[in-house]
Amino acid sequence: MTEASIPQRIIIGCDHAAYRLKETLKTALQKQGIAVTDVGTYSEAAMDYPETGRAVAQKISSGDFDRGILICGTGLGMSMVANKYPHVRAALCNDLFSAAMSRRHNNANILVMGGRVIGDGLALEILKAWLETPFEGGRHQRRLDRFDTI
Ligand code: RB5
């Protein structure tokens, strides 16, 4: 099975370190007609990333949303939080190759980036690749199915 279509709605969350990048990504998504649910944070005031990480991961885990984005300073904390949830496949992608492969082979349902690691231009390119690259299915689906036995 392959998933080729661009998602029509996305849930996004960040911490203070990536607030500005979140606003940039949100604007870009909305310009493409993608509905964005923003769970915060809503300013550069310091906050704890597990709060917004949890908010996005829960909605992906429950199936309320198919795709999400989480960004913090490095992307590391958000990845760790999100991947604690069943059915979440959060991929930290600070480069284009990882972004495409996270879709092709891993069917990643949350894109994670580090706002202090990459610039806005690269983040937008990574987002585009992640949105547009389909899952290849086949042997990769068989491998993902094994996640449920762990
Ligand atoms: C916040 O200072 C920083 O720790 C956070 O944004 C993130 O990088 C954690 O993994």
Concise account of the structure shown:
The protein is built from six helices and five strands.
Note down, in words, how this protein is organized.
The chain is α/β, with parallel strands linked by helices and 150 residues long. Strand 4 (90-92), helix 4 and strand 5 form a beta-alpha-beta unit. 35% of the residues are buried. The protein is built from six helices and five strands; from the N terminus they run E-H-E-H-E-H-E-H-E-H-H. Helix 1 crosses helix 5 (120-132), helix 2 (49-61) crosses helix 3 and helix 4 runs parallel beside helix 5 (120-132). Strands 2-1-3-5-4 form a five-stranded parallel beta sheet, sandwiched between helices. The radius of gyration is 14 Å and the shape is globular. The model has no long low-confidence stretch (mean pLDDT 96). The protein has a single domain (9-149), classed as 3-Layer(aba) Sandwich (Ribose 5-phosphate Isomerase B, Chain: A). The protein starts with 8 loop residues before the first strand and ends in a 5-residue tail after the last helix. The protein has helices at residues 19-31, 49-61, 76-82, 96-104, 120-132, 139-145, and strands at 9-14, 35-38, 68-72, 90-92, 110-114. The site of D-ribose has 8 residues, from helix 3.
CATH architecture: 3-Layer(aba) Sandwich
The side-by-side strand order for the widest beta sheet comes to 2-1-3-5-4
Strand content: 15-25%
**How many runs of DSSP E, i.e. beta strands?**
5
Notable traits:
150 residues, alpha/beta, Ribose 5-phosphate Isomerase B, Chain: A, five-stranded parallel sheet, 6 helices, 5 strands, globular, binds D-ribose
